[in-house]
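Notes from hallway chat w/ T.B., transcribed later so I don't forget. T.B. wanted the structure written out for a chain they're using in a teaching module, and asked if we could keep both sequence and structure tokens in one place. Agreed to drop them here.
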Amino acid sequence: MKQLIECVPNFSEGRDMGVIKTITDEIEKVAGVRLLDVDPGAATNRTVVTLVGEPDAVIEAAFRAIKKASEVIDMSRHHGEHPRFGATDVCPLVPISNITMEETAVFAHKLAERVGRELAIPVYCYENAALSEERRNLANCRSGEYEGLPKKLEDPHWKPDFGPAVFNAHTGAVAIGARDFLVAYNINLNTTSTRRANAVAFDIREKGRPVREGNPITGKIRKDGHGKEIWTPGALKACKAIGWFIEEYGIAQVSINLTNISVTSVHEAFEVSCQKAMERGMRVTGSELVGLVPKKALTDAGKYFLRKQQRSVGISEDQLIMIAVKSLGLDDLKPFNPGEKIIEYLLDDPKDKKLVGMTVEGFTNETASESAAPGGGSVSAYVAALGVSLGTMVANLSSHKSGWDERWEEFSAWAEKGQKLKDELLFLVDEDTRAFNKIMDAFGLPKGSEDEKHARTAAIQDATRYAIEVPFRTMQKACESFDIIRAMVDSGNPNSVTDAGVGALCIRTAVMGAYLNVKVNGAGFKDIDFLNTILQQAEELVSRARAAEEAILETVIQKISG
């Protein structure tokens, strides 16, 4: 599945829109990257840019932007209210989907090394990309700011992680890091009182509230024996919050920044806010997401609320998001459009006509047309998706079967696994066609000079290898689906045993169809060792599929024969 990261570079220019545009133009030149936001600030003389895409494309775009900023921003003339020490002051990478923080940090180091080597800019790595604990905190890396940078670079203790320990008056330095996603999230209250909203904010925020002498609001803040203020921490980690009144809506809100949604999720912030508001005689009427969120934030919320109802979480992505929207009250103040709020959806190219986005009739007609794609590989992946969907359906029906209430978690787990396999197989429906198109593109490359011939041959071999790997992945994922079918036939809702049986037939067909594509796509492939290894593994998957189908159908026939 596609990996996505967000990059949020901050440039030390917020007043000259011409300069800002020359930087963002560099970002938009990179294929596979979407520029989501450009937010200039005149007082801070700083612009925050947000871009998203696959990791390699994002760090290429970030490098080009850093390079252009080093050319068009002169730090020796910069003044602004925000702390800064470079033309590109900070450049954090944020994992969005299908990528870990550790993997994101590796890409941050890759970008940092290139910036230091090619641009000769001193680079400090911070937060999750930090190479020492002291440098994890951005404030430490940027201490002294631009004006203190010459002295700092002379100190061996503050030698840059990458790039020269040499002061460049024009560019300054840059901090490159990896951090978690920050979510701006507001809780709606049935009150107009800012003070009461603040009370809830102090209850939940990590910082909490000060311990006071006498009056809990106006009393003097107590201090410990070292003269340090004493605070009572709030209920939620990685949470900043304050209360305010929103005239537009006529209500008070708890305004929250969740600085690490892997520590405190959106749904946890909502639930704790509901609890604290109720304890103070108020009620939460809904909530509001400000800006963008990763899809996982809402699908996790949907699963959380379904589990509270003891219902299966193995439902589609759209249904999970709908449950999250209704449970969190995200449509309380105005309609909530997932297509405008979820990062992954914003990256969908409307020009990209996916096969899986077609109607059943449309897909069938496209397959029956004179076009060579979609072909047997895409159809095999789709048949497999239908097969595992039938097993998932039986799991969901079983989790809701009357009298089986105590088994809902068992079947929910199977349904969740089925949904994941279904999504992977649907991805392979279109990926098989993309693999075919890559081969066609490679054959269309020029072949005049020796260099062109060599490049064309290499491109054809690379594309052919991928065209072998895609149907082989279909075989693997299809075979994994037999586990779900087997479990549903053995212990699922007996009224749906034939549905599971049909699923087994679909999956075996998919495995055989994908196997044919592995073999035919391998014709003429020069890496014989790779091809023989894949074919051996593919033949083993065929044997497993045949045996699994036979055993499952035998059980189905026994059950329906009484």
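Follow-up for T.B.: The chain has a mean pLDDT of 93. Might be a good example for the class.
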